[in-house]
Specification:
It is a single chain. Helices cover about 40% and strands about 20% of the residues. A 5-stranded mixed sheet has the order 1-2-3-4-5, sandwiched between helices. It is globular. The chain has 6 helices and 5 strands; from the N terminus they run βαααβββαβαα. The chain is an alpha+beta fold. It has a domain of about 120 residues: 3-Layer(aba) Sandwich (Aminopeptidase).
């Protein structure tokens, strides 16, 4: 069960990177999108808002809001309380210019927390779909002995890709 005692702080890209290093390193797969946007935030910080979620003084979650897409990427642990704080901070900064987020990704508990907060703040239904899982091969596949089957390359535009995803 997640504790509701999380504080949220908006940080500059360099500070965000330093503060959330342990969170991003502990969850490498779910952190890839946050890390990707962090790299973009270093180039153009005006297009992103970066937040760290703290519990007992330790960073446990990382949230990145992309202004142009109104999209949230999360990594680590994010409670509903932290998600509410995120929406309140963005609403306070942008006022009437703050539009409802178009989507979010991250670990299922963080996405659920963000969906719950969006339902409360925007008084509407949030359409939550299956959680997305990403597999990334960091190294070339190695042949194995005694395992049936073969790995074959599938191009991104292949008609087989949706079938494989299912």
């Amino acid at each position: 069960m997640l504790s509701a005692n999380q504080n949220l702080c908006q940080l500059a890209p360099v500070t965000f990177q330093a503060e959330t290093l342990s969170v991003l390193a502990a969850w490498p797969v779910q952190s890839r999108r946050v890390i990707s946007r962090l790299a973009d935030a270093h180039e153009s910080p005006e297009n992103f808002r970066l937040f760290a979620a703290y519990q007992d003084g330790v960073a446990v979650g990382a949230l990145c809001y992309e202004l142009r897409k109104s999209y949230i990427c999360a990594a680590g642990t994010v409670t509903v309380e932290a998600a509410r704080s995120l929406l309140a901070a963005l609403s306070e900064e942008f006022g009437e210019g703050f539009i409802r987020p178009t989507g979010c990704d991250g670990p299922p508990l963080a996405v659920d927390a963000l969906a719950t907060a969006c339902e409360e703040v925007f008084s509407g239904c949030v359409c939550s779909t299956d959680s997305m899982e990403t597999m990334i091969l960091d190294t070339e596949p190695r042949s194995t002995v005694g395992v049936p089957g073969v790995l074959k390359h599938v191009s991104p535009c292949s008609k087989l890709l949706p079938i494989l995803a299912m």
